[in-house]
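Minutes, project check-in
Item: structure for the 273-residue chain
Input as provided by the requester:
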Amino acid sequence: ASATGASGRAVMGWFGFAERGLALGIRQTAVPIGGVLVALGLPPVVEAWGLRGGLLALAAGCGATAITGFLGLREAPTSRDELDDLANPLRDGRVWRLSVGSGLLVAAQAAVLGFVILFLHGERGLSTAAAGGVFALMQVLGAGFRIGAGRWSDHVRARIAPLRQLAFALAVALLATAVLARAPLGLLLPALVAAGALSLSWNALSFTAAAELAGRARSGAAIGLQQTALALSYAAAAPVFAWVVDAGSWRLGFALAALMPLAGAILLRRLAL
C-alpha cells in the first residue's frame, strides 16, 4: 500500500504540471502490467513448484523491485516550509469528494476485473486459459489507456473533465455488457473487454488530481487517503456484486455496476481542476 503514495509524491516532486499526468499514467501502468505478469506467469510456476514456489516467486519480484528502487530513486529537492500542515488533506473537502467519487469508479472495476474469469468460465463456458487471456487483454489495454489518459489530461490541462468522461464511457460499456450478457461471445466480448480496459483507465487521473489538490508537500498523504478509500470501496463492492449476481443474475449485476461510475461522475462535477 505504501508504494502508491510514495511513488505519487516522487512524480509530483520531479515533474511539472504539464508532464505529471503522463508521468503518473506511466507509473500506474505498473498495476495492469503486474496483473498480466501474474495472470500469465504465476500459474505455470505454481503448477511446477506448488504454492510455496509461487509465493517465493512473488517475494523475489518484490525484492528485485526494492533493490531497483534503492539504486534508482532519489527524493526531489524540498524546502522546509513545504513540510508544514501535512495533515491538511484530511481536512480538505475536495480531497474527500475526489476520494468518494473515485471509490464509486473502483466499485465498477471490482465488478469487472474481480469476476470476469468466473463469469466467462462458469457462465459462458470458456476455458480457464481463454478466460485468463481475456483478463490479460483487459490489463494490456488498460495500461495503454492509463498512459493515453495521462497524456490527454496534460494536453487539455485538466484532470477532472477527462476523468468524468472516462467514467461516463465506463458506465456505457458496463450497460452494454449487461444487455449482451447472454448474447453470442462475438458481441459480448468487445463490450466486456472495453469495460475492463476503461475500468483501469481513470486511475492515474484520479491520483494526479488528488496530488495537485493537496500540493506537492502533502501529495503523499492525499494519495494515501485516496488509496484507502479505493481499497475500502473495492472490498465492499466485490461481495455486494457477488450477492447481487447470486440473488439475481449477471445481467442485473453488471447493470447495477454501471450506475457506480455514473454516480461518481456526477459527484465529481463540482471539482475544478
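Outcome recorded: The radius of gyration is 19 Å.
No further action items on this chain.
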